[in-house]
Amino acid sequence: MAERLLERATLTRFAPIPEDDRQYPLEYMDANSVIKLREDDTSVVIGICDPSDTAILAFLEDFHGKPVQFLLIERSELSAYLGKRLSTLDAESPKGAPRDEERILLDRLANDAPIVNLVNSLMIEAIRKGASDIHIESFSDEARVRYRVDGILSTVMRLEKGKFPAVSSRIKIMANLNIMERRLPQDGRISAHLGDGRYDVRVSVVPIADGESLVLRLFNTEGVPMGLEDLGLDARSLRLLRAMVAHPHGLVLATGPTGSGKTTTLNALLREVASERIKVITIEDPVEYRISGVDQIQTNERIGLAFDTLLKRVLRQDPDVIMVGEIRDTATAELSLRAALTGHLVLSTLHTNDAVSVIPRLRDMGVEPYLLAAVLRGALAQRLVRRVCRSCARSGKPEARERALLSRFGLTATRLVRGSGCDACDGSGFRGRTAVFELFGSDARIEEMILRGERASALTDYLTSKGFRALARNGLALAVKGVTTVAEVEKAVMG
Q1: Which of 148, 181, 241, 261 has the smallest C-beta neighbourhood within 10 Å, fewest atoms?
Q2: Contact 158/143 with Cβ under 8 angstroms?
Q3: Nearest Cα residue to 196 out of 127, 291, 149, 264
Q4: 296-302: Cβ within 8 A, 24+ apart
Q5: For the segment 137-195, what is each residue's pLDDT rounded down to a tens digit?
Q6: 237 Cβ partners below 8 Å, 6+ apart?
Q7: Following DSSP, what letter does each residue of 293-309 receive, concatenated?
């Protein structure tokens, strides 16, 4: 789009300039060198310093939804106006004014020390508590802040409704989002440092009936990720998993719902196989952990960098091991399996309820049985369950319902451990989480069954005869050991 030739104008020509909630936020005016000079029901006049910024012109035309006239103004005059406004803001908001009559200038309020400190403290406290997400939501009479800790949301703060716009604006500024946009969803990111840790914060903003919902997902990119020994696998399962990735080529899949720890497991596997003698490339959305010596690529579908597109390019990089963050579609599935067939070890994730279901799922996605039989080395399914807090753990006799459930899976217990709730676990009785697994390795019989198109139940029956143990049984075994509770296993694994 060519630069517009605009008529020049001065701010004094349009005095008095619209102010308060009739004007753009000062942060937006300063960052984009624009100012609203006049507005009525039928049109709006806007002063702009840089008419070559066509994106801002287009946004403002769309934002107002009525005829817009742009005039060229001097940056020095706009700067003088902004400086004067900043110096007089405090005088324009008299103390004791009723809250519903106060004019809130978002960027000024968002950069006041109390709001900066509030947002910082929310993030620091979330990191300290080990939260994976921060939810900040605006309702009709208040705003609510919740942390997701160990998979459970809990309210940590309630804010006055009037403070929410400032908090929202502050977070948008930190995430480099448009503080003017409240009609459309926005996504951004913040890089935050706390002590020796660096956190990648993914920000999602969605408009809701009474304002906005902001969700901040926290990733400790420099945290010490788990090794295979730390995942909670028993000795037999650990040997089997290591055998799967010992193959120079083939496909290994991790399954489970979002938030079940699949990425942590795959990263542990990558650290197991990575060395200077092989090239390892990952395609992730997002990159959650930095792994030394591994080429990690972030997907970006907005510019056409989807999993399947990147996988085609990665195959030209002469990799030995490829980790594909998720097999979402037929194209990615076929590329992943063909990569495994042509001499690469491919690790990926799939959304299924159990490990054996990866076989019918891939068949349903159009993968040829001969290809699947040739490359599948094995699959694991996992869930996360909360650990009983060791500071308040108490043992007691199992309830009749618990005994019946344990008996159904061939387990017994005379005592079961529960947390009574204490300061260490914020009264929940749980602190931290561990994974529950089920996994199988492929063999000649499994390959034959895949080629014949046998159902998942037949595959499970065969694997069970070879010692395969299901998720529910392994989870209940952890409850018998006192690691978690029967109720937690029921909710996470059997719910």
Answers
A1: 181
A2: yes
A3: 127
A4: 299/325
A5: 999 999 999 999 999 999 999 999 888 988 999 999 889 898 888 889 999 988 887 76
A6: 437, 439
A7: T-EEEE-BGGGTB-HHH
